[in-house]
Amino acid sequence: MSDKGQNLDEPDAEVNNERVDNANLGRYFSNTTHTIFDELVSSEKSDAFATVKNPVFDIPTTSPSGFFDNDQELTEPLQTNDFQRDVWIPSENTTKILRTIATSTNGTNSISRELLTMPGLAIQDDMIDPTKGAVLHILGEDEFSNRNILTASDVTQDERGLRNLIQMGCYRAAVNLTGRLLAVYGQGYGKINLPSKHTPNSLQLWFTRLSLLTKLRQIEILENESKAFGNLDKPDMYFIYYPELYGTKPGSMASFSFRLLLAEIPNYYGKSKQTIDNLYQILAIVKRIIKNLKSGLNGDGSELKSNLNKQDDALRLWNGRKCRTLISIVNCSIGMKNYVLANEILENLYSSMEWKKIEAETLMSAIGRVHLILGDVSAAEKQFLITRDTPPSSKVVRELVDRGLMAVAQNAFQEALNCFQNASVLDPSNVMLNNNIAVCLLYTGKLEAAVLLMENAMNRNPVKCLQESVILNLCTLYELHTTHSKQSKLHLLRQINKFKGDSFDIACLQLGT
User: By the 8 A CB rule, do 39 and 58 touch?
Assistant: First the structure.
């Protein structure tokens, strides 16, 4: 699983020349990330709309991170050589150690254990499928027999099998398989703090595993297993540490996406400031690499020996990575409710580069949504580049959604409903729009219509619509609609049992105990 193949879930991603479908792990397996702009108010913020229990509005997945489409780095093999893609600037101490290794006879160096990366699994047993247990307990053996999903033992014991599990939404089984594969590298259970050799493949396995644990919200395991990697700066994270395998090849074996993931992980266990510090450290190195490239050098500061035309490709690559890092900082700062920092970064990002028209409009829209979170509708209007006095374009979903969100901020739910419905005509399969329409129907006193809308969407495309946030909204609508909501929820459980993998959080059904 090389850095070239890190987009395991995108439709256009190619891994070992095989195409895989979207497995909804875009946050870590693609070069775009899930951001605060993917949901204006998350379902965890129960005070978002005090008049109802849980239903929340979503906004489209178009976000600043979407400026660089998922394939920005996937096209690297055709444009950017491995050297420029693997470039990283080690710390001063690590640089000294690597220089010593590079100038010594193979096998004559002994590195202190404290300077090695020594990861291992924090759990011995396989993760289990919670839906199976719930279905057996609540619906009985007959319904349980309809459960037919892949486990780690049902696929080939390699990266191909891992991709199949992810594609099918079997993230727990995928975690189990990563554990088996990492054991081959001497990094299985009980191996934390024991030396082992690393390769780009083993690090990609760890990247995949930690990404899955993040998606599954297995925070304790995530924290314990990620700590060994630090900031990926220890000597054994670089090719040159293994001269017998890679000769004098420079660069880091760890992908840039792995760096971002490790930087963000502390945010999940309550250390947001550490995440911000980590991301700014990455940003500082990225800026140094860009400065070197602009000065006619290689990214690591060494003398340029390759074709000058490749320098432009490298600059595009690293400018893209700079933007990805900035967007990660925006995400974290909004999570900390530091909207001033988020807005400042987004505005600087907008003014610091030349954007295509659609990219610039998307960024302005994102800035406007930050103002909406702050309740500043007039400032949001200016960023959205629309006014209430002008009719919306009949062809732009984003503009209609922006207008709908502004109307929500002003409690004008009928106006918001009209905007979302018009957008849905243009994009009828958009789950976010159906969700927003249903919530607007609720606020305009049409509860039964809201339930019917979401049920119809669920029946038309259960695979796409069976999302935890959508199910949570629908179950809340059921509770508001009738005192006999349990049967409707059990029907949803049957659909989840039939169509979803082992990663679904059935707590969103609110079935109680």
Answer: yes
CA dihedral 482, 485, 488, 494 (to 10 degrees): 170
Distance CA 402, CA 278 (A): 33
- The pLDDT score that the predictor gives to residue 306 is 63
CA dist 138 and 121 (Å) reads: 33
Query: Who contacts 104 (Cβ-Cβ below 8 Å, separation ≥6)?
Result: none
Tell me the C-alpha distance between 209 and 226, whole Å: 10
- Return d(Cα 186, Cα 141) in angstroms, integer: 40
Question: If residue 14 lies in a helix (H) or strand (E), which one and from where to where?
Answer: strand 14-15
What Rg, from alpha-carbon coordinates, does the chain have? 24
- According to the 3-state scheme, what is the secondary structure of 260-324? HHHHHHHHHHCCHHHHHHHHHHHHHHHHHHHHHHHCCECCCCCECCCCCHHHHHHHHHHHHHHHH
Phi, then psi, of 40 in degrees rounded to 5: -55, -45
pLDDT band with cut points at 50, 70 and 90 for residue 390: low
Q: What is the pTM of this model?
A: 0.82
**Sorting pLDDT into bands at 50, 70 and 90, what band is 19?**
very low
Continuous segment of H or E residues that includes residue 227: none
Percent of the chain scoring above 70 in pLDDT: 80
pLDDT digits (tens, 9 = 90+) for 197-232: 999 999 999 999 999 999 999 999 999 999 999 999
Q: What three-state secondary structure class fits 19?
A: strand
